[in-house]
Amino acid sequence: MAKQNIELIVNGDRYTVAVDPWRTLAEVLREELNLTGTKVGCNQGDCGACTVIMDGRSVSSCLTLAVEAHQRQITTIEGLAPSRTQLHPIQEAFVEAQAVQCGFCTSGMIMSAKNLLDHNPHPTEEEIRAGLSGNLCRCTGYVKIVEAIDLAAKKLDPAGAKEA
Amino acid sequence: MKTNPKLIGQSVPRLDAPQKVTGQAIYTDDIKLPGMLYCKMLTSPLPHARIKRIDVSKARALPGVKDVIIGEDTPKVKYGNWRLVPESQDELPLAVDKVRFVGDEVAAVAALDPEIAEKAISLIEVEYEELPALYTVEDSIADGAPLIHEESKGNVSLVRKINYGDVDGSFASAHYVREDTFRVHAVQHAYMEPCASIAAPDEGGRVTLWTSTQTPYIVQCLLASTLGIPENHVRVMKVAVGGGFGGKMELRPWEFCCAFMALRTGRPVKFLWSRKEDLSFGRRRHGMTLYSKIAFAKDGKLIAKDFQVLLDGGAYNAMGPTATFLCGTFGNMAYRLPAYRYFGRHVYTNKPPASAMRGFGAPQAYFAMESQFSMAAEEMGFDPIDLRIINAMEEGDVIPEVATVSTCGFKESLEKVRELSGWDEKRKNRQPGHGLGISAYSFISGGVFNWFNTKYNFSAAEVRVYDDGTAHLFSMACDIGQGPDTVLRQILAADLGLSIDKVRLTAMDTAQTPKADLGSWGSRVTLMNGNAILEATKKIKEMLIPVLFAEFDLNQIQDLAFEDDHIFVKSNPKKRMSFAQAVYKALRGRRGEPLVAQGYYTPRNKGLVSPAFSFGAQVAEVTVDQDTGLVKVDKIYTAHDCGVPINKKAVEGQLEGAIQMGLGYTLSEQFVMKDGRTLNSTFLDYKVPTALDMPPSESVEVETYEPEGPFGAKEAGEGLAIPTAAAIGHAVYEATGYRCKDLPITPEKVLRGLGKLK
Predict the structure, then answer these.
(1) Is the domain of B543 the same as that of B644?
(2) Does residue A148 sit at the B interface (CB-CB below 8 Å)?
(3) CA of B189: which chain A residue's CA is closest?
(4) By the 8 A CB rule, do B109 and B123 touch?
(5) B657, A138: Cβ pair inside 8 Å?
(6) How many domains is chain A partitioned into structurally?
(7) Once rounded to an integer, what is the mean pLDDT over residues B310-326?
(8) Looking at beta carbons, which residues of chain B come within 8 Å of A77?
(9) Is B45 within 8 Å of B413 (Cβ atoms)?
(10) What value does the mean pLDDT take over residues A36-53?
(11) Terminus of chain A with fewer CB atoms < 10 Å: N or C?
(12) What is chain B's mean pLDDT, rounded?
């Protein structure tokens, strides 16, 4: 089967790439666009390390075909902060709460957190845990990740957090 | 307790975190090199077979294939981490005559892209003669069992015996004796980063290897010996590593194959292991059969133990010999034990090799010991925590033939966990289906026994200081996620009184960092590398102290302090100089010779096991659904003695991660195998606990000041992964009356134990 030309809009940048139709979005992000911040922990859709946001919803980029992402808006870990030299409040919270150990799940955790907070700005602990339930971590027991997301919610909307 | 610099104990945010949260941290598979080839490996589909013929001609002829290798093409040098006992080195990068497990590597291909490499692998023809296979230790040691390795009679590759005191006499005269057999299963590290390597040819027949490892020096040495080139022709570099937990501490076949094919083709070669392969063929924690007989006197004193362990080693030794030794040692740690007999056997089976995994023999040995303590307490009429306190080791105790315990917060840990968990109250008001269980542990802070037979010190550090007020640490210590890149800089900064942001780090490059470091295992890194750093910083201070003495014309008896990026006279802090200025003056005084110092650490006069011992106790609170048998852990309480924590949140992080691993070990993780094949090779079927599965937890640290550790520190990495299984097991018993002696505790076993399922 011939390669297909697709247009990807990743972190606001437009890329035109020719891809085999069976290539996953994760592969194209990492191999073609050199956006290696998206990690592949299992390539089976089970671990969540490859989570990115596509048109406002989190997806496992290892289960998403690149051709499905044609002309869709994609945000990866590299595009979360306004620039590569700044941190997004969720990223800040992960650093401050010491929610990072080996870091391999971190990109996916943060993208899942972004998805959660975009749709539910003031989640309860249970909602945070549910929001992370598709992301595996083997280092932290999730404790400080949950704390980081709670902290991030407060950073993103201090007034709302008070009400909640 | 000694006073430490203020940076010690602070939760300095991890210095690598900003890179990791932005996706900028580079892991091995993120690296691409010009002209890079992709490696794939062919593995055995059979658990035990003789290789009759391999035909690679079709694979070699496939366009885009640049190299194909089989065992016969290689130098055929066996390797293994136990260099001290060469006959224990039983592995070849590619099988030569025989394959011994489903997944044993047979051939490798390097091609222009992974798809071509995969296709080429499928074109390799191997003719096997299938041999009878063995899947349990009991079958392997049975009379007449086929031999997996010809040289290992009875399929036992290593025996470890310990014997002291009058064991049989003590049993005969004891007030209370019990014997039990426990069976524990294999589980996997499940590090999130899949194994990956890239080898690039370097000038003069040398090779550079980037690899996801926790033991770069071991990989350097064993890669050199298997390639047949000088040790220092191999340069091993580690980038960020996404977890290891013991699963990445050996030379792996793909590291050899990438390097070997890189040298043959003159091109970089990259390998990435899939999760399916890792779960199917990867290293794992030893399954074991543990027979334990223990005796107590009437006053509750433990008087004897007979401990016999069969370790299911799988097809090769890997780190199994160490597990066999340590299992015996852990069988006799934590409690005073006047008479002890241990008989451990490392047994080959036709399964993926077991190896090191967090706790390394301890989760298994303590599951047996702690379960027995709780059973004995009930039958003898003691409170389970009281029985442990009666027998708990104390500072200054000697573990026979092992070591003297220099610091011990064990009794305090037991008392504190009793208080923290509301033990007495909750046990008084027991609710049906609800239970509390206790388990304790002691663990090592790095190993002494030099099984790798390193010629170098166990840890080394080089410190360079500059007149811009900064310092640079060169260290082979290996951050695999646990945090030494931060903690070691914290130790350096604390001792020289520098701000943490003034300390740079070059870590883990065997060509640049001082020889050597044995790697991240045995909870050794903070203690051993910390000590090496402190020896180096002491030498740096000796270079700077004369500057202040000359500048301020100081009396011989004056002492100096290194704090806040300054050096000053303790009795008169106005007499001060910035660290930068002192370095500048020293540099001038040395006529330009840079201020560089190296420090080393090898435990001396510390016996054969460890220079320091951690202790702790954990209580699990569970609710068991009497109809479904489902165990829900409501809360975990932990009190532990890790000496002085260097970075408090890093220590908390170790505990929190350990609970997750312990929970998985106890309740949800196991391999389902049939005829040597792993049937659950995805994270959907191999159940690592998720955020929703985790119970809340509370903990308290019992601080001791370990004289052998840097600023009083000892281990906090592995010990905490030990107690969870026995604590939950005990709690389940309290809740239901079902006593689990064979992990994991599944709903089926609980219901069967309750007589509700046949």
Answers:
(1) no
(2) no
(3) A138
(4) no
(5) yes
(6) 2
(7) 97
(8) 21-23
(9) no
(10) 98
(11) N
(12) 97
